[in-house]
């Protein structure tokens, strides 16, 4: 029993440590106050620079979004990926944008078609550029590649709506939790070995 519990604590500690490292990476490149930037300027800059942004001057294509559903309930979305282009690149409705799509808005806060439509047409979106720590999954990439818009799924920027950098207190708490779980797990493994 002690052996299995010890292994479980170490596994959970390693998982928490992984997420702590990722959050730390992202927080290190972000300011507490978001930087206001146009989508055209963000694409030109790439994933470098301040990850915490207020995105402006973009056009969304909610009808070409990819949705992840909750337990196959197609009326409730858990995650949505919305293609966006700079205003300058947008063409008439029904036409592909000039230069294709090089940015995606990711959200877990839009749970219906109406909410996706509303988000795609907001003048600004606060969020974080998360390319440093994540990329599109194979399923999302496959679905987005079906779009006639010409989406660069291999290199597109991913802006996660509503996300903000973790504070130092949160990171310290996560780091402390990692150490406690791993240390506790090792202690239980030693105890199990002594009882044999």
Describe this structure in words.
- This protein is α+β, with helices and mostly antiparallel strands.
- The protein has 2 domains: 1-30 and 167-196; 33-164, no CATH class.
- The chain has 5 helices and 8 strands.
- Helix 1 (2-27) packs antiparallel against helix 5 (168-195).
- It starts with a helix and ends with a helix.
- The mean pLDDT is 84.
Fill in the keyword field for this structure.
8-stranded mixed beta sheet; 2 domains; alpha+beta; elongated; 196 residues
Number of domains: 2
N-to-C span = 12 Å
Structural class: alpha+beta
Number of helices: 5
The total count of strands amounts to: 8
Radius of gyration: 21 Å
Topology:
Elements: H1 2-27, E1 35-38, H2 39-45, E2 52-56, E3 58-60, E4 66-70, E5 73-86, E6 103-107, H3 113-120, E7 124-129, H4 138-144, E8 157-161, H5 168-195
Parallel strand pairs: 1-2, 6-8
Antiparallel strand pairs: 2-7, 3-5, 4-5, 5-6, 7-8
């Amino acid at each position: 029993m002690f052996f299995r519990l010890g292994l479980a604590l170490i596994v959970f500690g390693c998982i928490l440590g992984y997420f702590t490292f990722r959050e730390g990476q992202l927080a290190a490149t972000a300011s507490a106050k978001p930087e206001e930037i146009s989508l055209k300027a963000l694409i030109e800059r790439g994933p470098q620079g301040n990850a915490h942004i207020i995105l402006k001057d973009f056009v969304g294509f909610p009808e070409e979004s990819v949705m992840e559903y909750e337990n196959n309930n197609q009326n409730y979305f858990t995650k949505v990926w919305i293609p966006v282009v700079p205003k300058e690149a947008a063409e008439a409705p029904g036409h592909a944008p000039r230069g294709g799509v090089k940015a995606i808005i990711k959200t877990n806060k839009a749970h219906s078609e109406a909410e996706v439509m509303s988000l795609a047409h907001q003048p600004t979106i606060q969020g974080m550029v998360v390319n440093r720590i994540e990329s599109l999954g194979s399923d999302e990439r496959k679905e987005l590649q079906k779009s006639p818009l010409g989406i660069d799924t291999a290199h597109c920027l991913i802006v996660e709506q509503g996300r903000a950098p973790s504070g130092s207190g949160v990171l310290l708490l996560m780091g402390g939790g990692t150490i406690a779980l791993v240390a506790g797990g090792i202690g239980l493994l030693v105890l199990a070995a002594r009882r044999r």
